[in-house]
Amino acid sequence: MALYALGDLHLSFQADKPMDAFGKVWKHHERKIEKYVNQTVGAEDTLVLTGDHSWGRKLAECREDFAFIERLPGHKILLRGNHDMFWDANKTERLNEAFDGRLFFLQNNYAAYREYALVGTKGFTFEGPFYLNRRGSIIGWDEEREEQAKRLVDREMRRLRLSFQKAEEAGYRKFIMFLHYPPTNILEQTSPFTEIAEEYHVTAVVYSHCHGESRFGDSIRGDFHGIRYLLVSGDYLNFRPELVLP
Predict the structure, then answer these.
(1) Most buried in the list 36, 97, 176, 225, measured by CB within 10 Å?
(2) CA separation (Å) from 120 to 42, 51, 106?
């Protein structure tokens, strides 16, 4: 029994959205997902998928993508990503009713893994635009977009706190925290998301969203203030699930 994570499946069995244009690592990436998940994850294991599951904009356009995910081994838990247009955060309960016993959607709730509560939300990170000088150093950024980003961070923090609160009310004191966006942007050393992780003494923060070698180092990786930070973007891992807890 083990806990794994993998992000950014970007499936498109019904939508015409091939990922090949984003680099050779994405060529037939769904075959890699199927191969490596089946090699790694057992029937009794738990696999958390950290957002951007399907290019379908409506649930009906995601059916084949979800059927693919359902066929993967283990207990699947899905987090909301920025491209998951089929998912209304305020109607997560409907998704859990529709996929009861097959998939669990993590939003404004929690999931259990042994003595741990798995909590999470999409999150948000200000990604620019940043203005660079000739040496490539950041000399400014779009302050209006930064203000909008702060409002989105506040919203996501409220949702994340709700997830923690529900887990605490159920008696959990150990937590693994999942985000789709990275917990910090390239200008930040800490953020509201790292602060809440430290407040609740989480064991690990797991996130994705960062694509391409130039972006893999955008946020925290490894140990930071006693917490393990794991990047699980599909192309970063070559679509091999990352072990979070044995």
Answers:
(1) 176
(2) 23, 11, 7
